[in-house]
Amino acid sequence: MNVGSTTATLESAWGDYRRRRNSLVAAIVSWTALIPLVVLSPDTSIIGQYWWVIALPIFVWVGVASLRITLWRCPRCHDLYFTRGIWFGNLFISRCYHCALPKWSTSASEPRGA
Hints:
By secondary structure, the protein is mainly alpha-helical. The chain has helices at residues 3-40, 46-49, 51-70, and strands at residues 83-84, 88-89.
């Protein structure tokens, strides 16, 4: 395998992870910004009456973004990067659960662990 193409593949995969992570962060920020807006708006305003029209798409966005980042696959071993099995996972780990590829690694020749 060509080292240049491997590096480009890893950078592309990390770019996909970055987009998924940024989408999740934006969804969570939108959700947390919506809560005080709904609580502080009077019931007679449009937001007070129809807050659910705004909240429902944001809630779905949070769910889809969470699922997309949880199901992101490791660029080296192609297993789920953040989860081991069905019930055990951690979005804050710095290495793949399966092959120990460090997060943001651009070299596929790093030693395999686990």
